[in-house]
Hints:
The chain has helices at 10-33, 35-44, 57-77, 81-100, 108-125. By secondary structure, the chain is mainly α. It has one domain.
Amino acid sequence: MQSKNIEVSRSSVIVLRVLVSLIFIVASLNHLINTDKAVARIENAKFGALGHLLGPPEIAVIISGVVMLLGGIALVVGFRTQWAAIVLIAMLIPITLTIQVGQMTSMGPLFKNIAILGGLLFFVLNPKLKNQ
């Protein structure tokens, strides 16, 4: 398969990196400051039982908060952008499956996470943009 190159504005890559990272930084602070509320969301979710597969939800919420904070900061500053995006995808998928899937009355959050996944995949699929 032949690769076709396109030009991408450096500033657009920076804006995308910053905007995608912000949700992880904000969510991580929520996980770390309001752990009980995050655990309650898992407990009340239709597929909340998935949250117990990794152990006690309290520990999973704290670990995910730390990982999202570190991944979000790495992404926002452009440090190992591809790896930061991969780590954040690894956090986003189980959160989406546990909390968002099954909430058919409100599909906005599900598709928000799908859009975020698209932003992260941009950085995974374009590793040469790491210095941008």
